[in-house]
## 1
Amino acid sequence: MNQPTIIAVAIAYLLLLFAVAWLVEHSSGRLSRLTGSSLVYTLSLAVYCSSWTFNGGVGKAAQTGLDFLPIYLGPTLVFALGPILIRKILRISHANRITSIADLIGARFGKRASLAALVTVIAVVGLVPYIALQLKSISTGFLVLSGGGPVDTAGRSMFADGALWAAVVLTVFAMLFGSRSIRPGEHHPGMVVAIALESILKLVGLTAIGLFVGYGLFDGFGDLFTRAARIPEIRSIFESSGSHYGYSWISMTFLAALAIFCLPRQFQIMVVENVDERHLNRAQWLFPLYLLAINLFVLPIAIAGRMMLPTDTDPDSLVLSLPLATAHPFLALVAFLGGLSAAASMVVVETTALSLMICNDVVMPALLGVKRLGLAEKPDLTRLLLWIRRAAMIVIMALGYLYMSHNSAQFALVSIGLMSFVAVAQFAPAIIGGLYWRGATKAGAFAGISSGFLVWCYTLLLPSFARSGAFGMDFIADGPFGIALLKPYALFGLAGLDPVTHSAFWSMLVNAGAFVTVSLAARQSPMERARAAMFVDAVDSGEAAQIWRRTAQVPDLMSLAVRFVGREKAAAAFESFARTRGVDPATAVQADAETVLFYERLLAGVIGAASARVLVGAVVEEEPLGVDEMMRILDETSRVIEANRQLEEKSRALEAATAELREANARLQVLDQLKDDFVATVNHELRTPLASIRAFSEILRDHPDLPHAERLDFLRIVVTESERLTRLINQLLDLSKIEATGSMPAESAPVDLAAVAYESAAAMQQVFAERRVTLRTEVEADPAFVVGDHDRLVQVIINLLGNAAKFSPSVRGKAALRLRRIGEELELSVADNGHGIRAEDREVVFERFQQLGDTMRDKPQGAGLGLAISRRIVTQHGGRIWVEAADGGGAIFKIRLRAAPALQLSPAVAAAAAS
Amino acid sequence: MVGLFAAGVVLLNPPILGLVGGTLFAWPALYLYLFVVWALVIAGVALISERGGGPPDERDRDNARR
């Protein structure tokens, strides 16, 4: 195939990709919705498979067998941890508008430029070989396809140098894809879709070659393996067990696992270009599946290549040579395009990510720091940003090309790639530590990353220069100045490991060790602690805004944002932000801390966290947290705690009130039960006399011939029962009357208690005589006037005397009625020598419906109303009634009433009393 | 998921890897072993993440936020 055809096809293919990207970004139809699909996200993640996978994997397999696989097993394992690790990175990055790996580390350990710049420098130095690798692979492929084999490029003219052309073309494409315009958040939907398309082509290309090898050149894969097994040296590659891979297998798995989130291009695609966190759910198994699919045919292709091609064929170009050697140029072209896709996607994304980092974390902070340039005052900086990025892309590609033309012959693709992996792995301790360890400090991160990087330079980068002839090979063989202990491939005598494993071990050990030691030794500033909490706990950053007391005018911030983001985008972003906070965007003038933070993040999305901080700082009046301020925040916190405590107290009080209510309810239920019992009792009490009256009346009616004595007897019973019935009804009436009249006695006239006592005693004389209970009446105060109702007071005393008669034992029963004056009061007491009343019942007896004794066993001796009525009457007279234990057993009821003042007595009454 | 990760780390690395060698039905046994275990790990992750997309409460929170 001639060169112009190949170049035309390649350029046409790249143009097609660009057209797709352009359509995605400019149409509003189905194409632009593609970016919102988890499948596109997954496929774009496959930018991980660079031409190293496509060509280098086969080359590696042809030489050493299956140890190309750990590079894909590592990411698979990390994606199994997707929900824990990757999701956390995603959330934090989205919340803080982080646009690159340098931003992430910089934001975690303080938005100072130094650390982010260090990360950027390491990324650039570490990845230049990787980019060189892609160029080399393209140029090799080009040569193989056009000339039928790799040729020494040294003698050819500049124009025939495929790598240079590739570098130029890819730089142009990277600029077109990655730095056409400035957008907040650095989304490049067009680029993502184009990458996804290329990923499909990669997979199709390699699978096509695989199937062609399996079924076109051999009779199925079984046949291929059977025939390969006949050649001893090939057999030894794939039939041996995995044991001889040893440490290098583990270290490659480890490095690949770290690289999947530390490589700038992976971070760009996985985090920055991610539009929906839920895409990760699908990607965490679909992406590993893609890796599996693309590697499925690598070993068969490699074996077939070893068997069918001359031994001096470059193993890295087997994929192309195989179809060519068997006269299938079209298939070779497909394979070439696959390899081109792999290389192009990797280079485009990597340079985009790196140029972002260089621009935002190195160049802009530096330029903004130089006051004389006055950049902070320039009206429109978007163009400047774009040109810085484009320049950065050119520089990166130039470095890559120089490295390649200087170094290319010495290394296989895989070992160059692994060198870059070790370099970016230096970020891992700081990232993982920063996400999960509160104590990680900026000093620690700085020490870890820089020391790890130095070890990497010494053990991998310098030897690679040495091997390419920059300085003598004896640097590797004997160590610098002949010091064997410092041999770069066997540092401190650690021999027996391959260079990559050796370097990975030492650099990661030094890195993690320095990170942890310095972090533990250094003290965190309050600001650092706040930021650590923000990352480790992934708290809502709105709260964190309060920590910085910053105020500014919204128009100032707006004009700042407009210069970097563009007027429309800035206005739209602020409007939606203001709406979420319920503020009218048109009238908001004073920006609080949260608004300032919003602007800082908006800017960070375009120019990186470090630059945004510098810029916003110029506008904002930022007061470092003074002691006063700290005290205020503490005060607020303690006030919140206090409010919280009060709330708890209130809820406790509420609980108590609820308990009281419940108790009251229980009491009500008891009372309700009592009322029911009372009604039943009254019912019974009314029915019993009625029943006997009726029974005896019927006997008298039906038996007119009854003897006279018997007849009289029956009539007497009828009369007694009628009286009892009347009494009961009277009592009930009394009770309801007393309750209705309230606290005033029915009549209020002067009443002589002594007379009342004598009258009552006389009335009850017969009852006591019947029960054979002696009643003693002692009246010590005579006359004893009170104001009240004579009849009611008589009723009370008769009731008390009736009880005394009832409860005193027959025959030897003794009751006493006493009246005496105690100070301003008169005391009436009725004592008996019955069973007495238990202390806990002494209040209960005065309640309505209450009768002492077991109602089930004893026939109730009253309606249980007497004492309740008595208490009400006494209360109405302004006195009190209670019961005590009497001296000789039994109970003593006492009533105290206020004596009437002498002047209240009219002379007539006084005279009557005297007479 | 963490369990799958741990299982993957153990099964796909030496020294377990050293136990597999020779051929199986004329295919290299190590080749078969690696791809089968790999596929199983992926299937496990797929099963877990497609069943509910993580713990349901987390998903609800995500939806609420959007």
Note: The longest strand of chain B covers residues 23-24.
## 2
Amino acid sequence: MTTRLRQIIADILGVSPSEIQPTSTPGDFPQWDSAAHIEIILSLEAEFGVAFTPEEMSEALSLAELQTTLQSKGVPPE
Amino acid sequence: MTRAPRPRVIDVRRSRPHQASIGDSATVQLVPGLIAFLENLPAAGFHPRYNIPASMGASAAAAILAPLDRPGTYWSGRDLEVEWTAPAGLTDTVLVDATLAELSDRLSRFHIRGVTATGIPLYTGTLRMMAIRDGVPAGFRSKAEYEQLRARLKRVSIPTSLPLGQSAPITISSTTPVTAQLPPGAGLSLDSPVTQYPDENGQVTFHIRADRPHLVNLGKPWELHLLTDSSKQTFPIEVPDPNPGRIFYLLTEDCETFDGGPLTGDYPSRGMGLYGNQNNFMDPEDYRVQMIQKPDRLNQIADRHGARWTHFYAATQRFGAAWAATQSSTGEWNRIVAEMDRCVREGSLRHEYCPHIHFDYEPDSQCPPQPRLLYDRATDGILPNDYYHPETNPTHRYHDWDGAARDNILYLKTPGSWATGDSKIGSLRKTHLHLARLQAGRRAPAVARTGSFDFGKSPEDQTISTQAYLANGLRGNSDSYRPGTDPVPGGQMFWCTQEDRQTPVNSLDQVRLVQFAITMDTFFQSAGDMNQWFARHWESVQGPGVHALLSMTHAMFCAGTPDPFRSLEGGAFDQLDQHLAWVREHYPTVEFATATEALLEYLDYYTPALDTYTEAPLIGGNPTAGYYEFHVRLLGAGIRVDDAHPATIRIAAPPCFSPADLATLRVWQDWTAIAEETTFDDRYQPVITVTLTSRSPLRLEVILRPEAIAAALDCFPDLAFHEPPEPPQPDLFCVRPPVVEGPHMRFYSDVVKLLMNPVAGHQEPLGRRVHPLGGLTLGIALTAALRNAGDAIPQRIKLRWLHETNLESTFVAETAGPVVRIRDDHGTLVALAEVVGQALPPAHHTADSSDFQSTLDTYRSQRAWKVMLAVRKVYDVAARGTWGQRLSLIWWIPSALLGKASGFDDYELRFPDFPRK
């Protein structure tokens, strides 16, 4: 899951996957704005077949937090 | 002809009618006009030849997406990637195709491509658009959800920048009350209480309004301090000025006499020119030529060009002339005195006469040596007793005020008062009063220049001189003498320290006098030299704010031909005429002004505290009964004045009135008398102090004592009443180039504002279908990235739009290698770009294409070329034309052979347009 998650975020932000660290947050990438974030969330929902609540969407603002939220919805880690 | 035809969607190709499907494509066509129009605007930073074709891709995309249009929904640009192969030529028809490659209910992606109608490829690229529904990117379930996320992602919790005139909240965490401390300079104000208590979340929020550009704060960000019992937090806040600057050109001269005889400088034998009649005394002829005729002549020449002279006028010489009239029996000095006064009265309709003190001519001084003036019956001339000294004043250049110009001479060192003539304040007052009376109703000078730049040397002496100026209501000084020096950044007007007139202040609490530096001291011997100086200094005065270029001369040294002393034609007068015509032609935006006019605009912009200036023209009253009314101008644009922000100001009586003349000063605002003063001290400038709670117009009523009425009427021969001029308003139209600010560039939205609005009575914006909002950041990114790349042209760009564009803001581009970050005045990141440029070979295409075009034109005019085109046409029509077209050749061929036929255009060879920077 982590690899796919990293790839999705990297694709949407237009950066290399290696630049996405577990602690990466929107503060690290100026292009990670609200539109990019909704793109990330919707891509994850489509990719993993889950649904984020509004609270989860606005709380999960790093790779690690997104990973935790996906795990809490039953998406297995790699 | 200039025209801007609208871009047209000329084809939409769909696999399923009335639906948007992958693979659908559209073509938008732009015929020549708009690109050429924008290219010819005097503003860099938009790159229309690259920008417009790329921006048209969004119109082609929108045409494909049209079937998906719903109320409350639109598509907004998100990402753009373009690789250019050539810019559009000014005469090219541009065709832009978009092909839908990806589509969801939130996002769409297109391949875009631009070509000219002749088939020259311009670019290929990708455009991504996102759907916006009810103002929110599609995908959010509600606006609240979107706002919640936005708040979490907001990177600017404390703004580092604010747009002028706008407010923003500043929130900090605190468990105790917080007090805001605003910076000096009135740049920021509060829309919330000064002291705030923490809310339930332990947060305190202040609402800060940006009232004045941070240029007022000497170019440094305003500093807001938030204080608690135990801490102090400081927040620097920039307030960029989005308005264009004003540039004034000041012509100044020292109006005085020179003799040049053996005992008065002996200039001819030293090869220093023929000035004066060289009889060792200042006689009526010296006065008439040098203080009357030549200044009048300079005024006449300036009037032809709308220029303004500031004559720094040695009124002490006028006092000396009056003294001479008491010694002479010729009657000539009485005529000189009358002519001098007439010259100032008439000249001050359009020009200005400011104090310039040659204290050696002051007949009433008690300073040694005595008597102050010598009279020579043989020449009917006068000379100051200490005019010449073989050691301390061998070239007669020193006229003394402070005395520092000549070491070891003790002159006017004490500040004194209006009532003490042999003091700095009193001597200035005497000259100022004389000139103010002659210019009453027209001008109230607020600038002076001491003779021989004798403002003082030591910090103590200069501080006293500064006090003397301020005690006389003089706010400007022109004693910073730097001839031949490099341009001064920002121009020749600056706040100087009171201890050293050459040194700019470094904090607002040091602000006292505005200094006018002199970098050009000229006798107008060469218009070309003047033009060169002006052009070199012009670049230093660009950007917002108030700037001045200032030249200095002496009317007495302006030499005509054939007689350099007496002639009023030819020579310097012609050179001045030519120079002013050149400035007017080449720099139409420069404003000619007197020193006081420029000073007032400077003070209005930069004064750190609200100030006033009592304007000279009468606006009402009944002068024959001793009642005068004057408009009081508030200085300090943007300074907030209301019930919550009261301001205490001082209003001075016009300098043409003495304290002993006055019975009452009364200030009116909104038809209410808000202050009155009836006690005046002969030693001090009469002022009245008022606390304002609004910026409504102010009137000063001056009521004279009965014994002063007749003398005052003599000062106001023209009893017309003038309504105050309208306050300045923003330009109706302007287009500005970007400004380099250290490592960054600042851009204005002028071109985009032009494109976003209809012009000339049309219904639709000029930039219809070329998407100027997206083009703004595209142009900024290209300009900023390529600025340091030298001779380069755009090759590739990857651009992401991140925030809506506020056209009232300016935009700062921060460049790091190929990456460009574009922020608005809130500090918000509006777009992020990566740009790759392509270096051009040296002496590249501009010259090449010019040569090529010239050669091509020659070929095209030659018979062989036309024969070739005729053969092309005949072959084409014969092979592919209709029978009707073939028959028409029967008539066309004979006329072509006779050189009369046209119709070659369709068969002309097309060549690619070379890239041009």
Note: The mean pLDDT of chain B is 90.
